[in-house]
UniProtKB/TrEMBL annotation:
<feature type="transmembrane region" description="Helical">
    <location>
        <begin position="104"/>
        <end position="122"/>
    </location>
</feature>
<comment type="similarity">
    <text>Belongs to the peroxisomal membrane protein PXMP2/4 family.</text>
</comment>
<protein>
    <recommendedName>
        <fullName>Protein SYM1</fullName>
    </recommendedName>
</protein>
<dbReference type="InterPro" id="IPR007248">
    <property type="entry name" value="Mpv17_PMP22"/>
</dbReference>
<keyword id="KW-0472">Membrane</keyword>
<dbReference type="GO" id="GO:0016020">
    <property type="term" value="C:membrane"/>
</dbReference>
<keyword id="KW-0812">Transmembrane</keyword>
<dbReference type="Pfam" id="PF04117">
    <property type="entry name" value="Mpv17_PMP22"/>
</dbReference>
<feature type="transmembrane region" description="Helical">
    <location>
        <begin position="168"/>
        <end position="186"/>
    </location>
</feature>
<keyword id="KW-1133">Transmembrane helix</keyword>
<dbReference type="GO" id="GO:0005739">
    <property type="term" value="C:mitochondrion"/>
</dbReference>
<feature type="transmembrane region" description="Helical">
    <location>
        <begin position="21"/>
        <end position="40"/>
    </location>
</feature>
Amino acid sequence: MFNSIFRRYHQILLKKPLLTNMISTGVLLGGGDFLAQILLPQTPDQPFDYLRNLRAIIYGSIIFAPIGDKWYRILNNKVVWTNGASKLENRTLSTILRVGVDQLIFAPFIGIPLYYASMIILENKQPYLENIIEKFESSWWITLKGNWLVWPIFQWFNFYLIPVHFRLLAVNIISIGWNTFLSYVMHNKE
Protein backbone atom coordinates (compact mmCIF):
# COMPACT_ATOMS: atom_id res chain seq x y z
CA MET A 1 0.00 0.00 0.00
CA PHE A 2 2.74 2.48 0.96
CA ASN A 3 4.59 1.72 -2.30
CA SER A 4 1.51 2.47 -4.40
CA ILE A 5 0.89 5.74 -2.53
CA PHE A 6 4.52 6.73 -2.97
CA ARG A 7 4.48 5.82 -6.69
CA ARG A 8 1.34 7.89 -7.21
CA TYR A 9 2.83 10.81 -5.28
CA HIS A 10 5.99 10.55 -7.41
CA GLN A 11 3.95 10.62 -10.64
CA ILE A 12 2.02 13.69 -9.50
CA LEU A 13 5.22 15.36 -8.26
CA LEU A 14 6.87 14.89 -11.66
CA LYS A 15 3.81 16.21 -13.53
CA LYS A 16 3.01 19.14 -11.23
CA PRO A 17 5.97 19.71 -8.90
CA LEU A 18 5.04 23.15 -7.58
CA LEU A 19 1.39 22.35 -6.91
CA THR A 20 2.29 19.04 -5.27
CA ASN A 21 4.90 20.72 -3.08
CA MET A 22 2.45 23.49 -2.17
CA ILE A 23 -0.17 20.99 -1.01
CA SER A 24 2.23 18.75 0.90
CA THR A 25 4.04 21.69 2.52
CA GLY A 26 0.77 23.27 3.63
CA VAL A 27 -0.53 20.01 5.08
CA LEU A 28 2.71 19.30 6.94
CA LEU A 29 3.10 22.85 8.30
CA GLY A 30 -0.50 22.67 9.44
CA GLY A 31 0.34 19.35 11.09
CA GLY A 32 3.23 20.95 12.97
CA ASP A 33 0.99 23.73 14.24
CA PHE A 34 -1.67 21.19 15.20
CA LEU A 35 0.89 19.30 17.29
CA ALA A 36 2.14 22.51 18.89
CA GLN A 37 -1.38 23.46 19.93
CA ILE A 38 -2.20 19.99 21.25
CA LEU A 39 1.12 19.06 22.87
CA LEU A 40 2.40 22.50 23.95
CA PRO A 41 -0.61 24.66 24.85
CA GLN A 42 0.14 28.00 26.46
CA THR A 43 -2.50 27.38 29.09
CA PRO A 44 -4.01 24.06 30.22
CA ASP A 45 -7.45 25.04 28.92
CA GLN A 46 -6.32 26.62 25.65
CA PRO A 47 -8.90 25.93 22.92
CA PHE A 48 -7.71 24.82 19.50
CA ASP A 49 -7.18 27.89 17.30
CA TYR A 50 -8.41 26.94 13.84
CA LEU A 51 -7.41 30.29 12.32
CA ARG A 52 -3.87 29.88 13.63
CA ASN A 53 -3.76 26.45 12.01
CA LEU A 54 -5.12 27.86 8.76
CA ARG A 55 -2.42 30.56 8.80
CA ALA A 56 0.24 27.85 9.13
CA ILE A 57 -1.26 26.00 6.17
CA ILE A 58 -1.41 29.21 4.10
CA TYR A 59 2.19 30.06 4.98
CA GLY A 60 3.37 26.58 4.05
CA SER A 61 1.39 26.35 0.83
CA ILE A 62 1.50 29.82 -0.64
CA ILE A 63 4.63 31.42 0.83
CA PHE A 64 7.20 28.78 1.77
CA ALA A 65 6.59 26.00 -0.76
CA PRO A 66 7.31 28.07 -3.90
CA ILE A 67 10.43 29.53 -2.28
CA GLY A 68 11.62 26.18 -0.91
CA ASP A 69 11.01 24.42 -4.21
CA LYS A 70 13.04 27.05 -6.08
CA TRP A 71 15.74 27.14 -3.38
CA TYR A 72 16.48 23.42 -3.61
CA ARG A 73 16.70 23.61 -7.38
CA ILE A 74 19.09 26.60 -7.18
CA LEU A 75 21.28 24.80 -4.66
CA ASN A 76 21.34 21.70 -6.83
CA ASN A 77 22.17 23.55 -10.06
CA LYS A 78 24.31 26.49 -8.93
CA VAL A 79 26.14 25.35 -5.78
CA VAL A 80 28.41 22.75 -7.31
CA TRP A 81 32.03 21.80 -6.64
CA THR A 82 33.82 20.72 -9.82
CA ASN A 83 37.53 20.81 -8.91
CA GLY A 84 37.72 17.50 -7.09
CA ALA A 85 39.91 14.61 -8.09
CA SER A 86 36.94 12.28 -8.52
CA LYS A 87 33.20 12.28 -9.06
CA LEU A 88 32.71 11.14 -5.45
CA GLU A 89 34.89 13.97 -4.15
CA ASN A 90 32.95 16.52 -6.24
CA ARG A 91 29.65 15.14 -4.94
CA THR A 92 30.85 15.22 -1.33
CA LEU A 93 32.26 18.75 -1.58
CA SER A 94 29.14 19.96 -3.41
CA THR A 95 27.04 18.57 -0.57
CA ILE A 96 29.18 20.35 2.04
CA LEU A 97 28.85 23.62 0.10
CA ARG A 98 25.06 23.22 -0.22
CA VAL A 99 24.65 22.57 3.49
CA GLY A 100 26.85 25.58 4.26
CA VAL A 101 24.92 27.91 1.96
CA ASP A 102 21.60 26.57 3.24
CA GLN A 103 22.54 26.93 6.91
CA LEU A 104 24.60 30.13 6.78
CA ILE A 105 22.52 32.11 4.27
CA PHE A 106 19.03 30.69 3.81
CA ALA A 107 18.17 29.72 7.38
CA PRO A 108 19.29 32.86 9.22
CA PHE A 109 18.54 35.50 6.59
CA ILE A 110 15.64 34.11 4.56
CA GLY A 111 13.87 31.15 6.17
CA ILE A 112 13.53 32.24 9.79
CA PRO A 113 12.83 35.95 9.07
CA LEU A 114 10.33 34.98 6.37
CA TYR A 115 8.43 32.73 8.77
CA TYR A 116 8.15 35.28 11.57
CA ALA A 117 7.38 38.22 9.28
CA SER A 118 4.77 36.24 7.35
CA MET A 119 3.05 34.96 10.48
CA ILE A 120 2.91 38.43 12.03
CA ILE A 121 1.36 39.82 8.85
CA LEU A 122 -1.06 36.88 8.53
CA GLU A 123 -2.04 37.38 12.18
CA ASN A 124 -2.57 41.08 11.42
CA LYS A 125 -0.39 42.14 14.36
CA GLN A 126 -0.08 45.84 13.71
CA PRO A 127 2.10 47.82 13.58
CA TYR A 128 3.76 45.17 11.44
CA LEU A 129 7.33 46.44 11.40
CA GLU A 130 7.43 47.00 15.16
CA ASN A 131 6.05 43.53 15.88
CA ILE A 132 8.37 41.89 13.36
CA ILE A 133 11.41 43.57 14.93
CA GLU A 134 10.24 42.60 18.42
CA LYS A 135 9.76 38.97 17.35
CA PHE A 136 13.20 38.86 15.73
CA GLU A 137 14.80 40.29 18.86
CA SER A 138 13.08 37.77 21.12
CA SER A 139 13.11 34.64 18.94
CA TRP A 140 15.56 34.78 16.01
CA TRP A 141 18.67 33.58 17.86
CA ILE A 142 16.95 30.77 19.78
CA THR A 143 15.29 29.63 16.56
CA LEU A 144 18.57 29.71 14.66
CA LYS A 145 20.34 27.71 17.38
CA GLY A 146 17.54 25.15 17.28
CA ASN A 147 17.81 25.09 13.50
CA TRP A 148 21.54 24.34 13.70
CA LEU A 149 20.88 21.42 16.05
CA VAL A 150 18.53 19.76 13.57
CA TRP A 151 19.08 20.80 9.99
CA PRO A 152 22.79 20.55 9.07
CA ILE A 153 22.91 16.81 9.69
CA PHE A 154 19.59 16.16 7.99
CA GLN A 155 20.43 18.43 5.04
CA TRP A 156 23.70 16.57 4.54
CA PHE A 157 21.75 13.36 3.93
CA ASN A 158 19.02 15.19 2.02
CA PHE A 159 21.44 16.85 -0.42
CA TYR A 160 23.65 13.78 -0.74
CA LEU A 161 21.08 11.00 -1.07
CA ILE A 162 17.68 12.43 -2.06
CA PRO A 163 16.87 13.40 -5.67
CA VAL A 164 16.23 17.14 -5.97
CA HIS A 165 12.50 16.78 -6.72
CA PHE A 166 12.00 14.92 -3.39
CA ARG A 167 14.07 17.26 -1.21
CA LEU A 168 11.25 19.59 -0.19
CA LEU A 169 9.10 16.58 0.74
CA ALA A 170 11.96 15.14 2.81
CA VAL A 171 12.34 18.50 4.55
CA ASN A 172 8.59 18.70 5.10
CA ILE A 173 8.49 15.31 6.79
CA ILE A 174 11.25 16.29 9.23
CA SER A 175 9.56 19.66 9.51
CA ILE A 176 6.57 18.20 11.32
CA GLY A 177 8.70 18.34 14.48
CA TRP A 178 10.47 21.53 13.40
CA ASN A 179 7.17 23.28 12.64
CA THR A 180 5.88 22.26 16.05
CA PHE A 181 8.89 24.03 17.55
CA LEU A 182 8.47 27.10 15.28
CA SER A 183 4.77 27.39 16.07
CA TYR A 184 5.51 27.09 19.78
CA VAL A 185 8.20 29.81 19.64
CA MET A 186 5.99 32.04 17.46
CA HIS A 187 3.08 31.89 19.90
CA ASN A 188 5.00 31.67 23.17
CA LYS A 189 4.19 34.71 25.28
CA GLU A 190 7.30 34.45 27.46
